[in-house]
Amino acid sequence: MYLSLIHEGQADGVREHLPELISKYPNNPDVLYLKALLTQDGLSAVDQYQSILRRFPESRFAPDAAMKIGEYFYARGLYTQAAALLRTLPVKYPRYTQIQQAADLMVSSFLAIGETDSARYYALVLKSMYPGVDVEQYGLGEFKQPASQVFQLKKKVPEQKPYVVQIGAFGNVDNAKRLKLQVSQIGYEVIINPVKSNGKKFHAVRIVRFKSKREAERVGKEIKKKLGTDFRILYRPMSQKSN
User: Fold this and answer.
1) Domain spanning 39-156 has what CATH number?
2) Are 177 and 186 in contact (CB under 8 A)?
3) Are 160 and 237 in contact (CB under 8 A)?
4) Positions of E strands within 57-182
5) For domain 163-235, is the CATH number 3.30.70.1070?
6) pLDDT of 101-138, one tens digit each?
7) Taking the complete model, does pTM exceed 0.70, yes or no?
C-alpha cells in the first residue's frame, strides 16, 4: 500500500507514517526498504540498501535494494561498480521481475567503460537464463560458439587484474575498518591486508582489483578527491602473497 502511494506521488503522506512504522517494526526488512526509498540523501540511502542486503539477503525487497544501488552507481558515473553489482543480480535473485531493467543498466555500464566483450558475454548469460529478455536491442552481435562453450572459455581464462590501490596502513585495526566502510559506501570493493614493516604489524586498506595502472590511478585520484586520502598503486598479482 505504501509503495503504491509513493508511486502515485504521495511520498510526503507516507513519510508522515514512517516513524510509527519504524517504532512498531524496527527490524522488518520491508519497513527498512521503505525508509531507504524515502531517504533523499543518495549516499545515506545506499548505505541503508546495503544494510538490507547484508542483514536480509532473502527478503522480498532485497533485489530491489540491489537494483537501487546499481542505479545510484550508474547515476554517479561509477560504471565499473554498477556493472559488477548488476551482473550478479540475476544469479542471486533469479525470480526478480525487473530483469530487463537490470540487463539494460548492466549493459550500459559495461559499454560506458569500454567493456564491450563483457557486455556481450553477460547479455548472452541473461538470454540463456531468461529467453524473454531482449538483448538484441543492444547491437552487440552474437557469439559464434554455443553458450556453454562461451561460459567455459570465460572460466578458463580469468581476467588478470594485478593492480591495487592502497589508501592507508594502520596499526589500529578499527581505523582500518572505518576507512574501509567509508570507501565501500562510495561503491568500491575494499579489503584489509595484514602487512609487516620494520618488525611492526599494520593493517593495509586496499581497493581491488584493476587491469591497468592507469585505471587504478584514476580510482585513487577519485578517492583522494572525495575523502582527502593519499594513495599508492601497488602491483599485486593474485598469485603473489599479500605484502
Assistant:
1) 1.25.40.10
2) no
3) yes
4) 163-170
5) yes
6) 999 999 999 999 989 888 988 888 888 888 888 988 88
7) no
